[in-house]
Write a structure and sequence with these properties.
This protein is mostly helical and about 300 residues long. The protein has two domains: about 40 residues; about 240 residues, MetI-like fold, CATH 1.10.3720.10. About 75% of the residues lie in helices and about 0% in strands. It is built from 14 helices and two strands. A hairpin with a 4-residue loop joins strand 1 and strand 2. Helix 5 runs antiparallel to helix 9. It is globular, with a radius of gyration of 26 Å. The mean pLDDT is about 85.
Length: about 300
Amino acid sequence: MKMTTSMIHLRQKLSTFLYRNSTLYLLILLIPPLLWFGIVYLGSLLALLTQSVYTFDDFSMSVLPTLTLQNYINLFGASNFDIVTRTFLMAAAVSIACSIVGFPIAYYMARYAVGWQKGFFYIAVLLPMWASYIVKAYSWTVILAKGGILYWFINRTGLTPVIDFLLSLPGVGGNTLSTSHLGRFLVFTYVWLPFMILPIQTSIERIHPNLLSASADLGAAPSQTFRTVLLPLAVPGIVAGSIFTFCLTFGDYIIPTLVGPSGFFIGTMVYTQQGAIGNMPMAAAFTVVPILVVGLYLTFAKRMGAFDAL
């Protein structure tokens, strides 16, 4: 009993001490996650950056601890630079497409959907995210195949000449949608679209309706109100959504592996260099590209007020 009383007294003193020293209490709470972040994340990142300046011996297929910048120089070679450019253009195109498709949906959710309708739209947007990412990617390989449901719909509606024309364009082409950049673009847009809709919807909901009413009262047409009031105020939400769509597309390697032509993306190139060839230094050098690009993009997004819309 005496021991129990002393323990209770000690706990009370400790609680009082931590209450009076809130900064120390906060540090105690933050130390475990900060250690995890510093050791696991930053430690592995530092090890990756260190590997990027090592030398890979093509003869022995081994990594040598000889420091060199040749891996970074090789990134500017024609084939490697083409991989970086292809990945960047696809990420930018997916972000633009998601914003165009997602904006009307987000606007309706924010301005017109009420009660059960709003709940329905939330479920409709979030439901695809509950399914396995790999399952969705594999499903689209079947949908886009020559005998898939999409081609059945195209043949029924007489759009076959249009699809054949699109597939014949340079940079888009392939024998079928499942082996073309167009099909890959469709899959990326479908998978990442929910990440664009929700930030835009949140951004539009923060726009006070009186601003739109005031624009109309001053004689502005609906199109003018959209261009001068609604769209500028919704831009932070669009940029916030593009953080997800751009970054996730830029680093993805599963969809480029399953859908589209055989050209490498950064993700597939890293996987090939590290997994198939064993050239860890070159794989590490390739991973530095997304780190730099995404870092610059996040800086741009912060200046556009995107973080306030998340």
